[in-house]
């Protein structure tokens, strides 16, 4: 792999692991003062509006109807369900050990869905995931792995949705560049805010300002597109 190819990969991994990885800490702090669905919805809607506005202002055009709807669907799978359910679980005070083990199942589910869609997988990939899962369980074995089973189930469903959306998104036509991320965040924000309204959430405390997640999402989309 040439240096020109390696640098974008390093940048995407940095955005995914460092910038996006810290989002779970931000969620844990945020749900202390925000209703979970409302917080997640406002985050994604604000980020989507800002990113889409910037893209349109710099000369980008809205995609055709099919790619636009595809991106909206992926946004619901990855962000509204995948991230939204994790936010709900953290609001229910799921221990970090359980959260780590549940989220670590995403690569395993991703390989399973890849086989379902006819994408070739290697034995080395399965071995790497097995070692990773075993390592996470061992690291958390001395901690508190008991907790709210419903919260753990929410994270598991979110992980399944994220894995399916990641694989399915690589098999359909999506808008190019950051336009896909903008539409995905807009769709997720609308769905989450609708769910917040239907569930009767209200803001009763001074909210915590949650930072942007666009760099991390862009990194994930870039890596998934090259799977």
Automatic annotation (TrEMBL):
Gene: yedA_1
Organism annotation: Klebsiella pneumoniae
Main location (coarse class): membrane
Protein name listed in UniProt: Drug/metabolite transporter permease
SUPFAM superfamilies: Multidrug resistance efflux transporter EmrE (SSF103481)
Keyword list, A-Z: Cell membrane, Membrane, Transmembrane, Transmembrane helix
Domain of life according to the entry: Bacteria
Entry keyword Nuclease: no
Segments traversing the membrane: 7-31, 37-56, 68-86, 98-117, 124-143, 149-168, 180-199
Source lineage: Bacteria, Pseudomonadati, Pseudomonadota, Gammaproteobacteria, Enterobacterales
GO cellular component, as recorded: plasma membrane
Membrane topology: Multi-pass membrane protein
């Amino acid at each position: 792999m040439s240096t020109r190819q390696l640098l974008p990969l390093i940048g995407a991994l940095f955005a995914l692991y460092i910038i996006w990885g810290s989002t779970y800490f931000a969620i844990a702090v945020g749900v202390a003062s925000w209703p979970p669905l409302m917080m997640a919805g406002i985050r994604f809607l604000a980020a989507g509006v800002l990113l889409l506005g910037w893209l349109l202002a710099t000369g980008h055009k809205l995609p055709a109807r099919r790619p636009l709807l595809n991106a909206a669907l992926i946004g619901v799978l990855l962000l509204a369900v995948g991230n939204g359910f994790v936010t709900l679980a953290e609001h229910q005070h799921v221990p970090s050990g359980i959260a780590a083990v549940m989220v670590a199942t995403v690569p395993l589910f991703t390989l399973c869905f890849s086989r379902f869609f006819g994408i070739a997988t290697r034995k080395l990939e399965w071995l790497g995931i097995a070692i990773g899962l075993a390592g996470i369980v061992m690291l958390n074995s001395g901690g508190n792995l008991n907790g709210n089973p419903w919260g753990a189930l929410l994270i598991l469903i979110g992980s399944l949705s994220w894995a399916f959306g990641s694989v399915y998104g690589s098999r359909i036509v999506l808008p190019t560049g950051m336009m896909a991320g903008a539409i995905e965040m807009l769709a997720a924000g609308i769905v989450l805010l609708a769910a917040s309204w239907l569930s009767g959430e209200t803001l009763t405390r001074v909210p915590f300002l949650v930072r942007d997640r666009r760099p991390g999402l862009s990194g994930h989309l870039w890596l998934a597109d090259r799977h």
